[in-house]
């Protein structure tokens, strides 16, 4: 990186940081009412039995135990991140519905690292329903270790441009944080009914971002994604924002279809 490029990057980061106080206050207020999104696709998903942290949605070349055949060479990897008190098995249903659109793709739906006191799993602690940045930062190590294990296992450690994160609610928060903090330079990230806890700490044009939100969401209002879109664009991210007027804090079939088309276009680019 040249000195002039570094100066431009610092100037952009300073502009982003100048609004961080107001942004964080808004994010905290939005998160106060956040609850579980246990069934993101009512038409497609239902809560299943407990699964391992690295559940794979089987593709046409996987055997009955989910193991890859020696001849399989998937071109894409999609990692799902469920909502608070959820399980990876819930998000796995979305991967099943995307197989026809995203052929030659591995879908992995891990459980979050931490247990929730009310059951299920969580990506970071919110027992008092307050979004605290220190809790998100404290959970980054566990998140990164989990994701690193999946990416290495699936053989994408040198092909991150064909990796996508897809999260819902709390899962969307950690997926966005992983990208906007500069920790993960992947091909794409999709946020369903999420919010961005902090302004971007780095600038990037390499990761395409899709923010999908229901206009009738009363848990995390769609204004959270509108705000995030502006912050991300200012940081140089390629952002697509879609608000679905009559959808609440869930993932509708139409939202899921739009996300699949987005990933196919971005990861094949």
Defining key terms:
7-stranded mixed β-sheet, 9 strands, 269 residues, 37% helix, 7 helices
Structure description:
The chain has 269 residues and is of the alpha/beta class. Helices cover 37% and strands 16% of the residues. It has a seven-stranded mixed beta sheet, sandwiched between helices. Helix 3 links the parallel strand 2 (76-81) and strand 3. The radius of gyration is 18 Å and the shape is globular. Mean pLDDT is 80; it is low at 3-53 and 58-72.
Secondary structure category? alpha/beta
Mean pLDDT: 80
What letter string, H or E per element, gives the SSE order?
Answer: HHEEHEEEHEHEEHEH
| Through-space gap between termini | 25 Å
Estimate the helix proportion, in percent.
Answer: 25-40%
Order of neighbouring strands in the sheet with most strands: 1-3-2-6-7-8-9
Q: Return residue spans where pLDDT drops below 50 for at least 5 consecutive residues.
A: 3-53, 58-72
Number of helices: 7
Characterize the main sheet.
7 strands, mixed
Secondary-structure map:
Layout (H helix, E strand, L loop, with lengths): L2 H16 L1 H12 L23 E3 L18 E6 L6 H11 L6 E5 L4 E2 L5 E2 L10 H22 L8 E6 L1 H11 L7 E5 L15 E7 L8 H12 L3 E7 L8 H16 L1
Quick overview:
The chain has helices spanning 3-18, 20-31, 88-98, 133-154, 170-180, 223-234, 253-268; strands at 55-57, 76-81, 105-109, 114-115, 121-122, 163-168, 188-192, 208-214, 238-244. With 269 residues, it is of the alpha/beta class.
């Amino acid at each position: 990186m040249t000195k002039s490029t570094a100066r431009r990057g610092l100037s952009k980061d300073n502009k982003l940081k100048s609004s961080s106080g107001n942004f964080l206050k808004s994010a905290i207020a939005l998160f106060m009412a956040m609850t579980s999104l246990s069934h993101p696709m009512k038409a497609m998903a239902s809560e299943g039995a407990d699964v391992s942290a690295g559940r794979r949605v089987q593709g046409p070349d996987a055997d009955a135990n989910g193991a890859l055949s020696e001849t399989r060479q998937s071109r894409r990897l999609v990692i799902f991140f469920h909502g608070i008190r959820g399980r990876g098995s819930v998000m796995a249903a979305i991967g099943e519905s995307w197989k026809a659109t995203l052929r030659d793709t591995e879908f992995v739906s891990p459980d979050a690292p931490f247990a929730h006191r009310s059951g299920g799993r969580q990506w970071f602690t919110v027992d008092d329903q307050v979004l605290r940045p220190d809790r998100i930062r404290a959970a980054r190590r566990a998140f990164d270790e989990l994701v690193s294990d999946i990416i290495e296992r699936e053989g994408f450690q040198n092909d991150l441009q064909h990796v996508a994160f897809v999260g819902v609610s709390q899962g969307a928060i950690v997926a966005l944080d992983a990208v906007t903090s500069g920790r993960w330079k992947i091909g794409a990230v999709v946020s369903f009914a999420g919010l961005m806890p902090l302004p971007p700490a780095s600038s990037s044009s390499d990761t395409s971002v899709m923010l999908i939100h229901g206009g009738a969401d009363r848990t995390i209002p769609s204004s959270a994604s509108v705000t995030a879109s502006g912050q991300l664009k200012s940081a140089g991210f390629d952002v697509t924002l879609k608000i679905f007027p009559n959808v609440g804090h869930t993932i509708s079939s139409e939202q899921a279809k739009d996300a699949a088309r987005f990933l196919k276009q971005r990861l094949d680019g």
